[in-house]
Amino acid sequence: MLTTSEKLRYSRQIMVNKIGESGQLALRNATVLIVGMGGLGNPVAMYLAAAGIGKLIIADGDSVDITNLQRQILFNQQDIDHNKADTAAEKLVLNNPDVEIEVVDEMLDDELAQYYVQQADLVVDCCDNIATRYLMNKTCVEYNKPFIVGAATGFNGQQLTIVPNIKDAACYQCVFPKSEHAPENNCQTVGVIGPVLAVIAGTQAIDAIKLLVGIEHSNNILALYDGLHQHWQHIYVKKQINCPVCGSA
To answer: What is the pLDDT of residue 183?
Structure first.
């Protein structure tokens, strides 16, 4: 049961239809792995910690740089040169000391990905490294864990939620096949507007909450956001039977 303090802290969330006390308990009992503590990972972690997720595992081997401060809203001038995951954890517990936070202050390789994905109820991908994203996609499919992907550059963003145990679910590699010649477009190469990251991170956090409380999810929908014109486009994607990751799943 929820404590009196929890009922008060989460009262506005508990009164929402389809959440209630049972949903809040589900959030308290959940473990979420967030990969990347940058422009997406900051707001995702803030919203999930504030929502009462029982345990957050936050992973990032990078350090705060002055160029991050335009969009990575957990950090300030004094955090420069400090590890992002460590610094984010310190800030998050100030908002909600009841949330357990485990820090992974290094980039995830195959061994670490398997270790932490097995512990999580779902994974939120907030990294800007395409190799890491393919690795997390493969690992989530292998361990049948929901995988919520976000990305943004310029005024544009995209979000895709993958629930592997739903029939005919496409994975990330179905939608974006691996290619040695694909350009590595990220904020370092083409820039990004900070609030676009907040929009995409918000959709990632919403999907995480919905999945954890058991709200039915529509798979195979790629959401594209055009911040310049404030326009959303939703594209239906298909599972690829020859996909090397999930084709035989």
So the answer is: 57
pLDDT at 179: 79
Tokens of 118: 């097995």
Catalytic residue among 174, 187, 243, 246: 187
Contact by Cβ (8 Å): 123, 136: yes
Predicted confidence at residue 91, as pLDDT, reads 97
DSSP 66-134: GGGTTT-TT--GGGTTSBHHHHHHHHHHHH-TTSEEEEE-S---HHHHHHHHHH-SEEEE--S-HHHHH
Q: What is the model's pLDDT at position 229?
A: 97
Is residue 127 flagged as an active site residue?
A: no
Residue with tokens 């803030």: 46
Closest to 150 measured CA to CA, from 121, 186, 124: 124
Domains and CATH numbers, the chain: 4-236 (3.40.50.720)
Q: b/e for 34-44, b at 16 or more Cβ within 10 A?
A: bbbbbbbbbbb
| Residue 218 confidence (pLDDT) | 84
User: What stretches in the chain show pLDDT beneath 50?
Assistant: none
Question: What backbone torsions phi and psi does residue 232 show, to the nearest 5 degrees?
Answer: -110, 145
